Amino acid sequence: MKRKDLFKEGFKSVFQFAFEKTDDLSQAIKEVWEDEKKATDSPEEKKFPKKRVPKEKIEKRKKTKLFRTLSLPPGATNHFFSLCTGCNECIFSCPYTVLFPVTSQETRKSFPFFDPNAKACHLCEDWPCIQACPEKALETYDVLQTKPKFGKAKSLHEHCINHKTGEKTCDVCFTACPIEKTVQFKGNMPVFASSTCTGCGLCVESCPSFPKAIRVDTLKNINID
């Protein structure tokens, strides 16, 4: 046999083998598909149908996740979103540049927010952000007779310096908190009183640990749209 014919026969054998294996693979895939289809159509499978999450619920879940760490400015009323015009006067008046605008995807209107885990509200005595609001979307606390409620601080013990040293080495969160008797110590670890904690984030901001040993869990009733 000539060398040329030898190569030709060799390639022919290789391709024939490949085609046979491809046919075998196709047949195997077909059999698996048929078995899967039978299992799906079986009475037992129909007893427990797969639940499909409606599109509206998926969109709502995404929104909740997006705003779960944000808080409204101090003094935000129940009608805040209908009264606020997005003028940003409260943002400009904040001496600590805590507030920032967030735009609604549906209305294309912006509203002021802040993240207490990133930058704390300093609970100013004269509330310049409230005073600057021309639409009364932010109500003064002289009228409300209370402190703002942004959420509640929570201690992350595994990151706390006191947990690492085994003794009360640090009390910076206690010193930074502007509300009396809100931060107390249980052993060496700080705990935060639910009744008085405003969730302002000053304890988070002052915490020297990295990662931070304190987190503010913000209120979950914010719906920008």
TrEMBL record:
What this protein is called in its record is: Hydrogenase
> Could you list the residue ranges that cross the membrane?
none
- GO molecular-function term, one example from the UniProt record: 4 iron, 4 sulfur cluster binding
| PROSITE patterns (UniProt xref) | 4FE4S_FER_1, 4FE4S_FER_2
What region holds the 4Fe-4S ferredoxin-type domain? 75-104, 110-143, 188-219
What residue spans carry the region label Disordered?
A: 34-56
A Pfam family of the record is Fer4_10
Basic and acidic residues bias: where?
Answer: 34-47
What keywords are assigned to this protein?
A: 4Fe-4S, Electron transport, Iron, Iron-sulfur, Metal-binding, Transport
- Tagged with keyword 4Fe-4S: yes
